[in-house]
Specification:
4 helices; 82% helix; 143 residues; 0% strand
Length: 143
């Protein structure tokens, strides 16, 4: 059973998380280079590394979530925890994007929220899909 919303959400989340992870890694290197020896740089680096860790975990969860889109019902149920973790980290990453408060990060945060919503909708609809697939189709009787 194909789940296009999971696939689209996972691809969106993967792309945005990868872009932000690369941008943050470059930014951390630039901060370390420019502010070497300045007071308070350690705090900035720790916060930056924690933010980078959130985006990297979101990236990994979104990549793993891609595999759930074409699984059968039992396989999708096994991947449900990964999808929920991806949703949580996408929302946390979106909050970080809103805190950054630049247009680029806000747009990327909105895309991460859209990806999380697509995951939530697909997980919520899965029960109805399984029930519909379990019902035998009735053939018309000939009388």
């Amino acid at each position: 059973m194909k789940r296009p919303m999971t696939l689209i959400g996972a691809i969106l989340g993967t792309v945005v998380s990868a872009v932000i992870s690369v941008l943050m890694a470059i930014g951390l290197v630039a901060i370390l280079d420019l502010a070497a020896g300045a007071e308070g740089v350690a705090t900035v680096m720790v916060v930056g590394i924690l933010e980078l860790a959130v985006f990297v975990v979101a990236l990994v969860m979104n990549i793993v979530a891609i595999t759930a889109w074409a699984k059968d019902a039992a396989g999708f149920k096994k991947k449900k925890a990964i999808l929920i973790t991806a949703v949580i980290f996408n929302f946390i990453a979106a909050i970080i994007g809103f805190i950054a408060a630049t247009v680029g990060y806000i747009v990327m945060a909105l895309v991460l929220i859209a990806a999380a919503v697509l995951f939530i909708v697909d997980v919520a609809l899965e029960g109805k899909r399984v029930a519909a697939a379990a019902q035998p189709t009735q053939e018309p009787t000939q009388e």
